[in-house]
Amino acid sequence: MYVLIVYDIGEKRVNRVLKVCRRYLDWVQNSVLEGEITKTNLETLKSQLKRIIKVEEDSVRIYKLRTENDVNLEILGIDKKQVFDDGII
Amino acid sequence: MYVLIVYDIGEKRVNRVLKVCRRYLDWVQNSVLEGEITKTNLETLKSQLKRIIKVEEDSVRIYKLRTENDVNLEILGIDKKQVFDDGII
């Protein structure tokens, strides 16, 4: 499936959240990552995130799409997307 | 259509971008808005954004979906979404 994650995390925890998300997804913008991910890897990512975040302060929004084709992306200005090859998949 | 907007904007322009986006969409998180929008209103929003942003520095990602049903949203932590009644629609 294709997943878009946006987060709003307390300063102390934000780097850990970014690091965990980058194992599975591509960074596309400040606090935003996206990419193709398996159901199993998404479950792993979610359980890792749950261990880091403070549920009463932080927020992680996970938008799940069947496929990347369900979304039509348009960018105004620059595309900041970075793709790294250190992913698990 | 259903639209999700995430932006990464220079400090001087970020408040104007937020204000314009909030005319058409619901604020859901820092730098993230989403909502149902007509094609015409999206075109208007885009032309307003283009007038504000610096194309060589700022980035606005517009994810367009046919319908809200194409996306399955899961939230970890708190839901910060705010819905205001001061929209144009």
Keywords:
Alpha-Beta Plaits, 89 residues, homodimer, alpha+beta, four-stranded antiparallel beta sheet
Describe this structure in words.
Two copies of one chain form a homodimer. The first copy, chain A, has helices at residues 11-22, 39-52; strands at residues 2-8, 26-29, 32-36, 59-65, 72-77. The first copy, chain A, is α+β, with helices and mostly antiparallel strands. Chain A has one domain (2-68): 2-Layer Sandwich (Alpha-Beta Plaits), CATH 3.30.70.240. Chain A has a four-stranded antiparallel β-sheet with strand order 2-3-1-4, covered by helices on one side. Chain A starts with a strand and ends in a 12-residue tail after the last strand. The interface between A and B is large, with 37 and 37 residues. Strand 5 (72-77) of chain A pairs antiparallel with strand 4 of chain B.
- Indicate the percent of residues in helices of chain A: 25-40%
Label the structural class of chain A: alpha+beta
Number of strands of chain A: 5
Quaternary state reads: homodimer
User: Unreliable segments of chain A (pLDDT under 50, ≥5 consecutive)?
Assistant: none
Provide the CATH topology of chain A.
Alpha-Beta Plaits
Largest interface, C-beta within 8 A = A-B, 37 and 37 residues
What is the mean predicted local confidence, pLDDT of chain A? Answer: 93
Number of helices of chain A: 2
How do the strands line up in the largest sheet of chain A?
2-3-1-4
Strand count, sense and closure of the main sheet of chain A? 4 strands, antiparallel
Strand content of chain A: 25-35%
Cα Rg of chain A: 13 Å
User: What's the shape of chain A?
Assistant: globular
CATH class of chain A: Alpha Beta
Order of helices and strands of chain A: EHEEHEE
Number of domains of chain A: 1
Distance between the termini of chain A: 13 Å
Please identify, by name, the CATH architecture of chain A. Answer: 2-Layer Sandwich
